[in-house]
Write a structure and sequence with these properties.
With 127 residues, this protein is mainly beta. It is built from one helix and eleven strands. A hairpin with a 6-residue loop joins β4 and β5.
Length: 127
């Protein structure tokens, strides 16, 4: 089993930055592709970013591309989401997720294939 714990959320003004962390325990971190999803009140969960096992492939939703960067440190069993130029519409609970398999970008972005999910961390962006 794998446990995922997110941290780094908080309140930030529009245009500011935050870095989220997701620490994994229980199994070998490098076995998993990792992703960040987010869910705002009243909205469906949406994909934000994904990174492959060794970090060689990354993909971003159009809504965050150019502003967010996903990275991982397998030695620390941690995946990060650096969020810059934050907008009020980025306000959401952010979840990290782990998937043993890589299908396609499209299938990874659905969120339906992931084996483990964290509890989430709140990000609030004020205008």
């Amino acid at each position: 089993q794998v446990q995922l714990v997110e941290s780094g959320g908080g309140l930030v003004q529009a245009g500011g930055s935050l870095r989220l962390s997701c620490a994994a325990s229980g199994r070998t971190f490098s076995n998993f592709n990792m992703a960040w999803f987010r869910q705002a009140p009243g909205k469906e969960r949406e994909f934000a970013a994904v990174i492959s096992r060794t970090g060689g492939v990354t993909y971003y939703a159009d809504s965050v591309k150019g502003r967010f960067t996903i990275s991982r440190d397998n030695a620390k069993n941690t995946v990060y989401l650096q969020m810059n130029s934050l907008k009020p519409e980025d306000t959401a609970v952010y979840y990290c997720a782990a998937d043993r398999s890589w299908g396609t970008v499209a299938t990874m972005a659905t969120g339906s294939t992931y084996d483990y999910w964290g509890q989430g961390t709140q990000v609030t962006v004020s205008s």
